[in-house]
Design a protein that fits this description.
With 80 residues, the protein is mainly α. It has two helices and no strands. Helix 1 packs across helix 2. 11% of the residues are buried.
Amino acid sequence: MLELLLRSLFVLGEVVLELVSGYLFYASGWLMLRLLTLGCYPRRPLNSPDPMDSRSSWITAFGVLCVVGMPLSLLIFLNS
């Protein structure tokens, strides 16, 4: 019984983490692309119904690059 409860909490936490990180990475990628392209791209709205669909996955990937990659590379550059 306890194992079933812990497993269901783990799955629920995984789903929540996936949704939150998906929306966070989509929003940051959308904002950075809007800033870099002076408002031209992406043409999809920020309040997209599903930021994890195949048409907006590149925006999410750019968000991952901005949120994770750029600070990590800055830390490596400054501490080397």
